[in-house]
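Customer ticket, subject: "Can you confirm the structure for tRNA pseudouridine synthase A?"

Message body: Hello, I'm evaluating your service for our small team and ran a test protein. I'd like someone to confirm that this is what the system normally returns, since I don't have a reference to compare against.
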Amino acid sequence: MYPSGTVAQEVVEPRVCIMPRIALGIQYDGTPFQGWQSQVHGLTVQDTLQTALSQFATLPLFVQCAGRTDAGVHALSQVVHVDVPFERDEQSWIRGTNAFLPETIAVQWAKTVPDDFHARFDAFKRTYHYVIYNHPTRSPIWANRAGWFHRQLNAEKMNAAAQALIGEHDFSAFRASQCQAKSPIKTMHSIKVQRMGDLVVVSVTANAFLHHMVRNIVGSLIYVGMGKQEVDWLGFLLTQNNRNLSAPTFSASGLYLAAIHYDERFGLPLPNDDASALIGL
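Agent reply: Thanks for trying us out. I re-ran your input and got the following:
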């Protein structure tokens, strides 16, 4: 959104003229933002990034992202593309844009891509990490960086339960009521739950995700980890296609968009989806 009140929409429009297209790798702390998508009222990642790019380029620029994140959700590796009116070296786009960005957002890399590259539609899978701070008392250090759960969790049982989700399924049981996806059928490539000290990290890779899908899965896995439900419960939920049967949606603060995967022909930096990188945050 710009001062004029213009709101950018996530639509694909025919390109009237060919301008250089670049892809950017973006990292952000989602705490102060009302999510990714541009809106008239409220601070968003998209608006902040577009404003910085436009200030650097001295004319309005609009971006398309690989995946929209909700309020409070972080990104270790969001990917966007933007059509630019002139050619500059890739390091200039990184340094120039970052000069106009707040500390909560930074461009990590820039890469010139073919003019038909699309950050969203060319992504063939995505990885999210969810971090649970599992300790009897809450931590101010992890307050906006993890979801807190006070009772001891059995990560091994959570991991065993999660394996029922691998493959192509109807994920309606973990779909938010306001989800706008055309189909609830998604393919989960992998899911892993591991303990790292006081942290329990859930790592999920799929071709695409429904609205609140990861946070709803995490909520249900916590029921298994605390002993409220058995290991086979998530498999049962899949067969019921009923959101009302699964656990409540867990906090947004522990969710990280970790990696976007593209065909190697685009030459983009290989994503690092190793959950252990979260320990150093």
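A couple of notes from the result: The helical segments are 45-57, 90-98, 155-162, 213-225, 233-240. The CA atoms of residues 161 and 232 lie 6 Å apart. Feel free to reply with more questions.
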